[in-house]
């Protein structure tokens, strides 16, 4: 990656490597960074990092920045210094974000922290309060990264097996873990993305995704650099406030490639007004990836219909599958062909089979996530480790040059997860924990093993239940639900719980809430044969999400068990209501020294 940036600086020094759109009143103000400036500032960061390091210079470097171009120069500065970078969210408020970054600090044995000057004092105090007195805290930025330091830079000696950065998982089902992405992994996956997306030299990409998340970092930030292109970016908050800004970015900068989880496309359909979309020209968009959470066929169709008059090509919407442990991309649809959809018999899917839908029985529509590029994909029975034939649902196993080296400082978990062996003796596979099936080499992802609901011998997917609830009435907020099961210890029986947000304007008097809860129970009894489901109704914003928009169902289960949900109304099955409160609630995170904006 360092070579790619240096080549860009040599060949087209004045070309914009990055354009960042800052909020400026009602509009957006552009800040540009050329390839020459990017190279200069990255060399300056690297030089200062080398000179200021205390003790072991091989310890990772934690990057704590708001989503701006300063993060990009600091990240690449670590590469230029031969140091392992750790992208992380700025802990600018107490709560889960601070707790997560504190966990990363401890787990990774961080040697240095890079941030902006205005955050340095508060982060330094936080490091001292955390007992990390030997961790150096440096500030970077346009005023700090001067040319004098850059002139002292010398290229590091790097091997393909060296860890380029640690991608900490967002923790949708478990505690975050540091994925060791090597320089060879990164180069392999960048080539896989370029091949799968048919990315042209000099591409213009545009995104609002977090820079510390794998899709935003590797797909939308580093891929354009890999091919000498330009990355146009804005903050996730700017997008959430006004989703039309994303589409306006595509129009203004003639963006050819973009990406978002499913909810981003859904948000545009619901919240971009006719006035905002008037005059938009999206014909430039070749690739609009949809991944990081279940891809819904109805969302793809609704987005194409809503923006059909903008020149949007339906083929541009590309379902894909990827994860940090494979650096990023595993598979994607063909950008020159329509994506595949498969409507299957719902009862057969509950038995882990893809069977054609029947007119006399419920069905489910699955979206194909394309074919793998540089990665071998197997579908394996997670219990017997037997490789399953086409059309059977099992755990997705991966092997190839993009598969990461393992989890940082977790040798046992790495051996168990990254060195899996099939029943017939094939070795060296990564176990994703995701469920899916291959049919004519197309990958269909169906869910997560840890989130599967097993009811009377049937395998039910929580996202199917969540979607059914949210589509059943205008009062329910789209994307604002979490379905999980809790166990009744007396009978050892699993009971389904639905936590669902209401829309901000929904009627919340006791009578209407009781009616809504009863309607959810009736719907799930009728559609999924689930009697006596427990229903918890909450306000908007209660459902916890990862940085990529995945619902944190495991965390929601724990909050429910701890009695920590702000409930508007609940209708619980007797066995669920009688469960004793959790005996080991999660501790409150410390807020000592937390930096504030």
Automatic annotation (TrEMBL):
Belongs to the ATP-dependent AMP-binding enzyme family. The keyword Lipid metabolism applies. Residues 7-408 form the AMP-dependent synthetase/ligase domain. Keywords: Fatty acid metabolism, Ligase, Lipid metabolism. It comes from the Bacteria. The lineage of its organism: Bacteria, Bacillati, Actinomycetota, Actinomycetes, Kitasatosporales. This is Fatty acyl-AMP ligase. Signal peptide: none annotated. It comes from Streptomyces luteolifulvus. One of its GO terms (molecular function) is adenylyltransferase activity. One of its GO terms (biological process) is Actinobacterium-type cell wall biogenesis. GO terms for cellular component: plasma membrane. Gene3D superfamilies: 3.30.300.30, N-terminal domain of ligase-like. Residues 575-597 are annotated as: Disordered. InterPro entries: AMP-bd_C_sf (IPR045851), AMP-binding_CS (IPR020845), AMP-dep_synth/lig_dom (IPR000873), ANL_N_sf (IPR042099), FAAL/FAAC (IPR040097).
């Amino acid at each position: 990656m360092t070579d790619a940036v240096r080549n860009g600086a040599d060949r087209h020094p004045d070309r914009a490597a990055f354009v960042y759109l800052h909020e400026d009143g009602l509009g957006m103000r552009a800040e540009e960074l050329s390839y020459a400036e990017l190279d200069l500032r990255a060399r300056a960061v690297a030089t200062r990092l080398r000179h200021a390091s205390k003790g072991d210079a091989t310890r990772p470097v934690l990057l704590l920045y708001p989503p701006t171009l300063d993060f990009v120069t600091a990240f690449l500065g670590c590469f230029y210094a031969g140091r392992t970078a750790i992208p992380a969210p700025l802990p600018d408020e107490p709560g889960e974000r601070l707790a997560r970054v504190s966990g990363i600090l401890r787990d990774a044995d961080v040697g240095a922290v890079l941030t902006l000057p205005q955050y340095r004092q508060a982060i330094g105090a936080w490091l001292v309060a955390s007992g990390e007195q030997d961790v150096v805290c440096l500030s970077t930025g346009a005023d700090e990264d001067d040319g004098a330091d850059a002139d002292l830079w010398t290229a590091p000696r790097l091997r393909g097996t060296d860890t380029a950065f640690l991608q900490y998982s967002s923790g949708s089902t478990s505690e975050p873990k540091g994925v060791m992405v090597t320089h060879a992994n990164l180069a392999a996956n960048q080539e896989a993305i370029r091949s799968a997306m048919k990315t042209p030299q000099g591409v213009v990409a545009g995104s609002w995704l977090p820079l510390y998340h794998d899709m935003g970092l590797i797909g939308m930030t580093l891929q354009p650099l890999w091919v000498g292109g330009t990355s146009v970016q804005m903050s996730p908050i700017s997008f959430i406030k006004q989703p039309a800004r994303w589409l306006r970015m595509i129009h203004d900068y003639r963006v050819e490639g973009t990406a978002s989880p499913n909810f981003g496309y859904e948000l545009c359909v619901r919240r971009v007004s006719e006035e905002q979309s008037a005059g938009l020209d999206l014909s430039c968009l070749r690739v609009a990836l949809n991944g990081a959470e279940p891809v819904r066929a109805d969302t793809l169709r609704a987005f194409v219909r809503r923006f059909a008059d903008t020149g949007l090509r339906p083929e541009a919407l590309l379902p894909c599958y990827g994860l940090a442990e494979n650096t990023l991309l595993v598979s994607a649809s063909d950008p020159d062909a329509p994506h595949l959809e498969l409507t299957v018999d719902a009862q057969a899917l509950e038995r882990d089979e893809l069977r054609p839908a029947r007119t006399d029985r419920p069905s489910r529509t699955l979206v194909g996530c394309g074919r793998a590029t540089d990665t071998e994909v197997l579908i394996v029975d997670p219990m017997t480790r037997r490789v399953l034939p086409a059309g059977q649902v099992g755990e997705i196993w991966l092997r190839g040059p993009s598969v990461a080296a393992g989890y940082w400082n977790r040798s046992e978990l790495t051996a168990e997860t990254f060195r899996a062996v099939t029943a017939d003796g094939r070795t060296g596979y990564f176990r994703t924990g995701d469920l899916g099936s291959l049919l004519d080499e197309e990958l269909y992802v169906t869910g997560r093993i840890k989130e599967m609901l097993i009811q009377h011998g049937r395998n039910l997917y929580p996202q199917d239940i969540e979607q059914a609830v949210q589509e059943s009435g205008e009062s329910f907020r789209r994307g604002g639900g979490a379905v999980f099961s809790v166990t009744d210890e007396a009978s050892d029986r699993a009971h389904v719980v639905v936590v669902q947000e209401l829309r901000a304007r929904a009627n919340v008097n006791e009578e209407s809430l009781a009616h809504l809860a009863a309607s959810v129970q009736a719907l799930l009894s009728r559609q999924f044969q689930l009697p006596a489901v427990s229903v918890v109704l909450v306000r908007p914003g209660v459902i916890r999400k990862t940085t990529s928009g995945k619902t944190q169902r495991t965390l929601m289960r724990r909050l429910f068990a701890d009695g920590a949900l702000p409930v508007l109304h609940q209708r619980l099955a007797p066995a669920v209501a009688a469960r004793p409160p959790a005996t080991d609630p999660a501790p409150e995170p410390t807020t000592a020294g937390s930096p504030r904006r």
